[in-house]
Amino acid sequence: MTVPDDSGEQPREQERDARGRKVTTRSLSTLKARGQRITALTAYDFLLAQLIDQAGVDVILVGDSAGMVVQGLDTTVSVTMDQMVYHATVVARGVERALVVADLPFMSYQVNADEALRNAGRMIQTAGVEAVKLEGGARLAPTIRRIVDVGIPVMGHLGLTPQSIHKFGTYQVRATTVEEADELRRDARALQDAGCFALVVEKVPAELAREVSQSLSIPVIGIGAGAGCDGQILVTADMLGLYTRFHPRFVRRYGELGRAISDCLRRYAADVRSGEFPSPGESY
Ligand code: KIV
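ok -> structure tokens follow
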């Protein structure tokens, strides 16, 4: 682990000195102030977390999208606190530079602020992440205040909030009406006022996301929210072409690793069956 820099000066990956200074909530706000875009990706295990960190990505989110990507579920709704603590623990172990944020899963923060605080504290103390994320707007402001007050950084999540999928019944673009757009503006302001250090805004019109990003002092990280946000996040398994059940148009595929892995696995099976593997050089 590198030593944090008191000055708040956190150079970009390209400009980083040999120490590779740690990304903090403070350095994210410095990036926003300088107009430098924040990079973020999800991880659920040590191996990928290490690769993402070494690539110089600023924020690693231990997303409850683990429910879909790792567990093969249709939604994130049944992901538990124990499962998230496990994922967060192994991710944190693989990261030196990036800020590690973990999702609080559905029903771990909605019942009351005491329970939310206990679960946020467990995530920080047991798993070793540096911040938590939760979904929802102004209604959650008192809970967020409570968590932030004890020194735990909170990231908000507005727009498409997958934990509420059964309420909305669809993964379509959010905040497309005047009323919904106004509600999103109010929610964003309420979360900032409650002490969130950053927001994720998912699947909303690009112009609205740009306006919200410009109107807030905290960074807004978009997913399916256009280029006007202060940063971008994607589900890593989506952008690597590993999770292919569906392909939203906001996902740019940087690789087809699912196909590459299938090819390796088939070649291995064929080599074992034909006796081509292991060779004498691979034997003792
Ligand atoms: O769970 C997750 O992966 C997320 C991202 C989509 C932002 O919340």
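Residues 257-274 form the longest helix (18 residues).
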